Amino acid sequence: MPIYEYECGACGTRVEALIRNERDVPKTCGKCKGKLKKALSGFSVSMAASSPKHEPSAACAACPSRGCPHSH
Ligand SMILES: [Zn+2]
């Protein structure tokens, strides 16, 4: 089951939530009641980096397609 990470826009508190349906999505921060926004997890970042849309920059031409040390 997917676990999503949410981050409070006000205080930066991170919340991990197991999302089985829409009602499981956390809406407010438990500390300050600020609005939570979906945070990018390491998993989704690596997925984006390996997607077909990813085009290496000129500086990255020498990097292997996977495990590129540069952040894009
Ligand atoms: Zn907060």
Rounded to an integer, what's the Rg over CA atoms?
16 Å
Strand content: 15-25%
Structural class designation: alpha+beta
| N/C terminus separation | 28 Å
Q: Mean pLDDT score, rounded?
A: 78
Estimate percent helicity: 10-25%
Number of strands: 3
Characterize the biggest β-sheet: 3 strands, antiparallel
Order of strands, main sheet, comes to 2-1-3
- Order of H and E elements: EEEH
Shape: elongated
Number of helices: 1
Report the uncertain regions.
Answer: none
How many distinct domains?
1
Present as ligands are:
zinc ion
Folded structure, characterized:
This protein is α+β, with helices and mostly antiparallel strands and 72 residues long. The chain has one domain (3-60). The protein is 11% helix and 21% strand. It has one helix spanning 42-49, and strands spanning 3-8, 14-18, 36-39. A three-stranded antiparallel β-sheet has the order 2-1-3, with no helix packed on it. The longest helix is centred in the middle third of the chain and has 8 residues, at 42-49. It is elongated. The two termini are 28 Å apart. It binds zinc ion (ZN). Zinc ion (ZN) binds at residues 8, 10-11, 13, 29, 31-32, 34.
